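Running co-folding for zinc ion.
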Amino acid sequence: MKFLPAAFERYSRQMIIEGFGIEGQSRLRRARVLVAGVGGLGCPAALYLAAAGVGKLLLVDRENVEKTNLNRQILYWEEDLGRSKVEAAGEKIRRFNSQVEVETLKMELTFENVYPLVEEVDLVVDGLDNFEARFAVNRACVEAGKPFIHAAVHGLQGELLTVIPGKTPCYQCYVATAPPERRPLPVLGATSGMLACLEVMEAVKILTGVGEPLLGKLLIFDGYQMEFRLVELKKLETCEVCRGK
Ligand SMILES: [Zn+2]
């Protein structure tokens, strides 16, 4: 690391992680990541992806900032109330790390529009809050062969699932049909922050090749008891998304 390029200096503490090096950092710099939904999961995920030096972030969200977002959506401050989330998030990320290219799209992700966005990136981080959009992103990722890192939170609990098309079960092998959505969702900011950090760790590992991603297992976090559990997941024979892939 003696002749570290100046642009890499801010990443020097992660580059000395075993197996990371200039190669790992260069891979992150070339990487493009879609953050699907920039809320309780998407805000910290985008921040840590930018901190790690991911070259391009594509932030997608349709909402404006509301007061009830502020307990967990840490890219939005009081001054941002009423602003478009992606505009506020994009501005913060650019100020935080000017080496990261940020593209923002104010829209809802659907089966109709998600395919070209997934084609543009290397992987997708789930920051969504509804099953329909997750189904759309999962299907597009499986069809495009792009990793999809799913997380969801509820209260002090959360779950993490990494989908590598062709290698692991997909999100719809786990949730075949959408259960009824309950609103408003109870959540502590620390819960979504922690699950977002786990998503970013999976993303960085996949992008750099350092470590082993969570393959074929669902991680369940219970903050009430401070317990982590791993549950083996199998491909659903009847899964209409990844069957035959
Ligand atoms: Zn499946």
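Result summary
The longest strand covers residues 148-154.
Residues 169-170, 172-173, 236, 239, 241-242 surround zinc ion (CB under 6 Å).
Job closed.
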